[in-house]
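Box 3.1 A note on notation
Throughout this textbook, protein chains are presented in two layers. The first layer is the amino acid sequence; the second is a token string describing backbone geometry. Keep the layers aligned when reading.
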Amino acid sequence: MLVAVSFSSVFGGCIPCIFYSRSSSTLRTVGYSFFAAIFNVGWAATQVSHMSMINCITLNSTSRVALASCRNAFNMVANLSLYAVALLVFSISKAKSHVDIEHQYRMIAYISIFIGCCFVVVFLVGTKEPSLKVAVHGNRHARISWSYWFKKVLYYQVALAYVLTRLIINVSQAFLAYYVINDLHMAQSATALVPAIIYVFSFIISLTLQEVVWTGQRLKLYYSAGGILWMFCGAVILILPTSMSAFMYVVSFVIGVANALMVVTGVSMQTVLVGRDLNGCAFVCGSLSFLDKILCGLALYFLESFQSNTALHISKYNPLDATYISVTRYGLGLVPAVCAFLGVAVTMSMDLHAPYAKYLTESLLE
């Protein structure tokens, strides 16, 4: 409900401006920031509870990774569905002015909110509270102290790996469209086609990962494979010339594979950390999600601020020459590559034990 209300308010215009019957940059900043903050509260509540369900449905490590990969696969379906909604709106409604463009994006937002609310109702009505096939020792309602997790070395290792993975995903998504248009000078359609390729291959790999029998070593191996692929993509992005811009479609395919490998295994490392301590899984998911949002926000703020200053400096004092490497290239190429390298290094130092590893030969629930 918070996501639906806040998201519709952000795309509905400046609410304080309408309320006070005047418009100013201060009112717009306060209005949009307020509803953006509400959106993040609602999104965090939904995300943490949904991720925690993975641990509560089953103790089987292979089952948990299968659920995480399924979750990521349908996340890609949601992203692709947004492109489908946008294509439908753009084909039906033709924009001839700035007001028409605002109307188009407002319609995309409202349709997406409506579809999301429908699936929330389906989830609430159709999902029963699961009961584990394997008994959990101790009082199932007893809370686990926060300090319990802070004493575990694996908590800090998993936190680093997860946050670095989210940095890769969020930073690369933020700069992808700018890189495709401003640095590679590709057609406007590439801003939709390149992300679509990433989502499609992430979806395919996420489905494939459900067929693997998972152990701690395999989690580390697959995560490292995704990190190495991202390091390769980052290096290519840094040196890719405009004349070879079509090669970006190949790079996007590799990015899609790398994203799926790192996200699915990164989330699954949390399930290994939680193990049987189900009453603490919400804190693990919530604290890691909190770190992810704070660090991603700081990283994007720093990069975008630096990008604005650099662009202003170049436009006033120096002409743009062929040797110039934009902040967008660094944001899409260097930052994810460095994060991938650090993530692989942290992952290889982990001591992961994934019990109950077996094929999915039985249903997850009783």
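The CA atoms of residues 310 and 316 lie 10 Å apart. The chain has twelve helices and no strands.
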